[in-house]
Amino acid sequence: MKRLFPLVFVLVTSTAQSEILKVKIDGIIDPITSEFITGAIGQAGQDKVEFLLIELSTPGGLGVSMQEIIQNILNSEIPIVCYVEPKGARAASAGFFVLLSADVAAMAPGTNTGAAHPVLPFGMENEKLLEKVTNDALANLRAIVKQRKRNYELAEKGVLESKSYTAREALEGGLIDLISENEEELLKELHGREITRFSGEIQKISTEGQQVKLLEMTVRQKILSTIADPNLALILGVVGLLGLYLEFTSPGLLVPGVLGGICLLLSLLGFSLLPISLVGVLLIVLALGLFIAELKVQGFGLFGIGGIVAMTFGLLLLIDAPNPEVRIHKGFAFAVAISFGIIMVFLLRLVIKSHMAKVITGTGSLEGDIGEARTQIDQEGGKVFIKGEWWQAVCDEPVAAGSKVRVLGAKDLVLTVEPCSRSNAKSSK
């Protein structure tokens, strides 16, 4: 009997130490979200937790990232519970697929899910292509929903008709398993519940006496998730280009160059996490060319307007994703295009004017100016007073002291002058 005590103690201790791992997804589903959930599923399996709880609130996201998440959920060693929370949250588009793929799908009151019809970027629907994408989404949905024994007819309407369902409608229609007021109520309802894994294995969930451990993103993932927002990446890119432009045109400022370089690199890193459209990139390059042409050719504003239009469409098409939440917003793209166009033309105009401006320092700045001979000036030399300064000067013909002279040029700090009549002269005194 005494030998049984250590065994019982070990079993009780191991049960008490068991826990539930939890992650929160609040925002678009992108590569960082996929990486985060994949890592959480791996850690949950390694730690042998009771189950992984995914608290979900998303408008949708990238199809590739969604597929990666679903694949990891279906192949997870431990059960996955997906809970749409808080009240007012949604699991739309890609979130709809993720919710239905979980071992247990739950929603809080006041939440909704659905609206998962595929959309091609910027409304450029091609009937055949859209049909292929839709059929692929439906096949993926059938493979998940029927194995999970959920209502495929309602799920299909969520894709074909972009139907969206409230929590109550989803529960009564057989799309989800539970409606829970909060996390505490969800855990109570899950205790003792038997679930059928995707493999067909029956498993019983226990939540009594278990702690919920929140797993957060790493600092790296938080930074990448922030700059993966296409609107923020765009701002960083514009600021970076302007900073580098200021540094190159006015070397030595340092601050614009350093900040511009950092912002541009962060922008490129953010865009590298998103699907980029080649057409969008080419339109932006064309816009920059039109801005430059406006100054060089003087297109009376036509090139400038064309540049703004090209950049607006380029920004709208830059992110090759069907979900509007993942693309650059229309109003934002238009505002950035106009602002960038005005700033670009203004700065380029300043540079061109500075290159065409007359030199105002050194002997080159005196060419064409009028001065007064203070001594006789001939080929041997003499003194001339011009712009408040005394200069050595030479002249091909003698010029008497007090006469007005015009500067023709300079060599080795010696001016070459010619006499000019008093009627045409401007006093430099």
Task: Give a quick precis of the structure.
With 429 residues, the chain is of the alpha/beta class.
Provide structural commentary.
With 429 residues, this protein is of the alpha/beta class. It has 14 helices and 16 strands. It has helices spanning 4-17, 31-47, 63-74, 94-101, 127-145, 152-160, 167-172, 183-190, 219-227, 230-249, 255-272, 278-298, 302-318, 330-356; strands at residues 19-26, 52-57, 80-84, 90-92, 104-107, 112-114, 164-166, 178-179, 194-196, 202-204, 211-214, 370-373, 382-386, 389-394, 404-411, 414-419. The strands form four sheets. A six-stranded parallel sheet has the order 8-5-3-2-1-11. The protein has a five-stranded mixed barrel with strand order 12-13-14-16-15. A three-stranded mixed sheet has the order 4-6-7. Strand 13 and strand 14 (389-394) form a beta hairpin.
What descriptors fit this protein?
429 residues, 2-enoyl-CoA Hydratase, Chain A, domain 1, five-stranded mixed β-barrel
